[in-house]
Design goal:
This protein is of the alpha/beta class and 360 residues long. It contains 12 helices and 14 strands. The chain has helices spanning 14-32, 45-51, 57-64, 92-102, 126-129, 169-184, 200-213, 226-235, 247-259, 299-311, 316-331, 350-359; strands spanning 2-10, 35-40, 68-73, 107-113, 134-140, 150-155, 158-163, 189-194, 220-225, 242-245, 268-272, 278-282, 334-335, 346-347. Bound molecules: 1,4-dihydronicotinamide adenine dinucleotide (NAI) and magnesium ion (MG). Its cofactor is Mn(2+); Mg(2+).
Length: 360
């Protein structure tokens, strides 16, 4: 099979981790007889430096003409980079919002799975994690606060800023359908997370999700308030299968879920829309604090490449081969520094972790 893959290395650790994912993809191509053709584009701070904007329309067109897009991460040091103190549409993160919007990606899937081998790196007590957990967060990606109206103005001599949170029925319905479809192939439970005791947008969310659930009688629906969900994630993570939630709640909860797996460096993600074209990226950011030091964990990006093979290219066998290789390398005791413990056989750098996974 011949596939066109757009690569977006981005900023910070992005180029290092995408490089390792490509190493693994090339091994897959060799072994299974595929041809992956890569086109690299700029997004984020590197694109601002080159073109003055975080993502050009030409770059988006290249993504649209490909089968899938693999992204590292974008952005500099928060509060302390040459890309920080500028208009919102000229910040690196604006590239992320633009690409999601332009490619029509409204569903962000973030699995949070506890590897047996990483229980030592998990900050939760052993009695909480003894049965493990395996959940997937389905986060709405193109609505809510991050896409609302915003304004900063002076009122009565004082600066005042405003952001608005809006959802319509159709936006809620399409993401709810994705969540129920995914749950149907898993443990058949959807936990819809909102703040319906306070927000009108959450009340509408709850109403539309309940309507959608009528078409999925084999899937259990539970509603949970977001603050309770934040607690439940650390008290009893094993209760969750699919967590369905809006944009900002999903952003925060998925970072929390990632930490209880041991490291944000382990978590992949997929962003999907109505077509097969998807965007695949690690859940973490550009980690400027460790960029260029060969310390970054490439596993989240490598597992994102596996999700890409599965969801956009229908290469399930190949995706499983990558997942198994990751598990094998972990079981052999190799760790990057973020997931190391005193029982680690060898702490390895970004490049060696990529080599080991490719070799397996
Ligand atoms: P971050 O995820 O980049 O880093 C948080 C912490 O986790 C840091 O201590 C970092 O060293 C560590 N970390 C992250 N990825 C790791 C990996 N693969 N291996 C080992 N350790 C890892 O989040 P932070 O610091 O809040 O943001 C840094 C920049 O990234 C900002 O400019 C932010 O806007 C951007 N960002 C970009 C995202 C994207 O491109 N999708 C998502 C989140 C943040
Ligand atoms: Mg985040």
């Amino acid at each position: 099979m011949e596939c066109k893959i757009t690569l977006i290395p981005g900023d910070g650790i992005g180029p290092e981790i995408v490089g390792e994912a490509v190493k693994v993809l090339n091994k897959v191509a060799d072994k299974f007889g595929h041809t992956f053709n890569y086109t690299k584009i700029l997004m984020g701070g590197c694109s601002i430096d080159e073109y003055g904007v975080p993502l050009t329309d030409e770059a988006v067109d290249i993504c649209k003409a490909s089968d899938a897009v693999l992204l590292g991460a974008v952005g500099g040091n928060v509060g302390n980079s040459r890309w920080y103190d500028v208009a919102p549409n000229l910040r690196p993160e604006a590239g992320l919002l633009k690409i999601r919007k332009d490619l029509g990606l409204f569903a962000n899937l973030r699995p949070a799975y506890l590897y047996n081998e990483l229980k030592k790196a998990c900050p939760l007590k052993e009695e909480i994690t003894k049965d493990g957990f395996d959940m997937i967060i389905v986060r709405e990606l193109t609505g809510g606060l991050y896409f609302g109206e915003r304004e900063t103005k002076t009122v009565n001599g004082m600066l005042e800023a405003r952001d608005t949170l809006t959802y319509n029925e159709e936006e809620i319905r399409r993401i709810a359908i994705k969540a129920f479809e995914i749950a149907r192939k898993r443990k058949k439970k959807v936990t819809s997370v909102d703040k319906a005791n306070v927000l009108d947008s959450s009340r509408l969310w709850r109403k539309v999700v309940a309507e959608v659930s009528k078409d999925y009688e084999d899937v259990a629906l539970e509603n949970m308030l977001v603050d309770n969900c934040a607690m439940q994630l650390v008290m009893n993570p094993g209760q969750f299968d699919v967590i369905l939630t809006e944009n900002m709640f999903g952003d925060i909860l998925s970072d929390e879920a990632s930490m209880i797996t041991g490291s944000i460096g382990m978590l992949s993600s997929a962003s999907l829309g109505k077509t097969k074209l998807g965007l695949y990226e690690p859940s973490h950011g550009s980690a400027p604090d460790i960029a260029g030091q060969n310390k970054a964990n490439p596993i989240a990006t490598i597992l994102s490449a596996a999700m890409m093979l599965k969801f956009s290219l229908d290469l399930d066998k190949e995706a499983n081969a990558i997942e198994e290789a990751v598990a094998k390398v972990l079981s052999e005791g190799y760790r990057t520094v973020d997931i190391a413990s005193n029982e680690t056989k060898e702490v390895v750098g970004t490049d060696k972790m990529g080599d080991l996974i490719a070799a397996n």
